[in-house]
Every structure is written in structure tokens, then in C-alpha cells.
Amino acid sequence: MNYIKLDSVYKNYQVDKQELEILKDINCSINQGEFVVILGPSGSGKSTLLNLLGGMDTVTKGKININGQIITNFKRKQLSMYRKEKIGFVFQFYNLISTLTVFENVNLSERMSKYSEKTDVILSELDVSHRRNNFPFELSGGEQQRVSIARAICKNPDIILCDEPTGALDSKTGKTVISVLYNICKQRKSTVIIVTHNASIAKIADRVIELRDGRIINNRVQEKTISVEDVEL
Ligand SMILES: Nc1ncnc2c1ncn2[C@@H]1O[C@H](COP(=O)(O)OP(=O)(O)OP(=O)(O)O)[C@@H](O)[C@H]1O
Ligand SMILES: [Mg+2]
User: Where's the ABC transporter domain (predicted)?
Assistant: First the structure.
């Protein structure tokens, strides 16, 4: 219980000498192994929240507790270890290393962890094995997206944070990707948090958090979810 807990989290950004409040008084808890969907309009602070959870940005005020550790107290080196060991991150704009092939991009991450899955198995699960030796610039947007998902999951992270993981995918491929993430969540008890504009994905989520203008306006646990097979993306 309360595997992830945010207490009165605020995030401000300074723009043109003006202090903008981007996240305001965020309070929420997430259980281990939950499949969580974060919904909200563009600019509502979804990516900002994900970056804070992933230890890639620091709060202005408030506390983030991850499995008993207060990461908002972490020094730079501890945060780096946290990102490396605990977090798999799927970026909104993929962020693949352009000078490495598909296989190398994914395997790079696999080598960072002792408990890793085989790179080729994961590439095949995400249906990008045939692009294994290509460079990112040779791939379509959807293929790059799937490689970035492979990279995030292959190191077996405790928490998988995905920023619009189906943004560039057609509905069939989107469904494949969501089922891969969902199965990892349920089989390995990884906690999966997905930011999306696609409200259909919310139908399979254990918990749905809605953001509006930097605040949580709804946080609900869904007892009845529909199965991944039945969801229409
Ligand atoms: N580094 C930054 N410096 C200044 N402002 C920022 C920074 N990052 C985000 N913002 C601002 O914070 C607000 C929330 O941004 P964020 O990227 O979290 O939104 P989002 O909900 O992910 O939107 P989208 O759905 O378009 O991806 C936006 O107004 C954005 O311009
Ligand atoms: Mg975003």
C-alpha cells in the first residue's frame, strides 16, 4: 500500500522572470503493481509530474515517497541511482541515441541491470525485431516509439513511466504496446504509469488520475476494468 506517495507537491518554472506554478498541491498515492493512467489536456502538467516521479526534475515544494524512500531529499548521486535502478522511462519524443542501432539502444539499457530480459525477446514482443540493425533515423515514428518502450522495460524496472506511449501508433499497434505494458505490470508486479490523451486506455486502468491546470481534479480506483483484448483504441 502507498508504494508511491506524493504530499503537497508543487512545481514552479521561471519564465521571463515570472514564476509560473505548473503543479499545485498534488497529493496522491499509488500502490505497487497498479496500472495507472494519467489524463489531462495539453499543458496541464502531465509530463512535468512524470519527470518528478522519474527523478529527472526536482520539486519546488512537497515530498515524494517511493517505497519508503523520500526521493525529494535525494542528492544528485542518489537520484541518478534511483533513475538507473528503479525507473524505466518512455519519453514523449522517444529520445533514442541516434548513433546506435535499435539493438544497441535497447541492449545498452539491459546491461545496466543484473536482472534483465533478453533484448531480442523484447524486440520481438514489440514487433520490431526486423529493424534490429537499423538506426533510429531509418525507422518510422511508431517503430521508434516501440524501441523506446523496449528500452524502458528490458532492464526490469520497478516503475515504468510512459509519456504518450501510443501517440504515434495506429490502433492495432497501440493495442500490442498497451498489452505488453499491461502484462509486465501484472506478471512482474511493476508499477506502470501512463500519460495519455486516449481516454480508452483509461478503461483498463486500476487507477485513473485526471489533471487540469496543474491540479488533480479526479483520482479514482476502478474496480471494474475491461480487458486489454476488449479495449478499442
Ligand atoms: N522546463 C520548463 N520551463 C518552463 N515551462 C515549462 C517547462 N516544462 C513545462 N513547462 C510548462 O508547464 C506546463 C505543463 O507542461 P507539461 O509538459 O507538463 O504539459 P503536458 O500536460 O505534458 O502537455 P502535453 O499533453 O502537451 O504533453 C506548460 O505550460 C509548459 O509550457
Ligand atoms: Mg506532455
Answer: 4-233
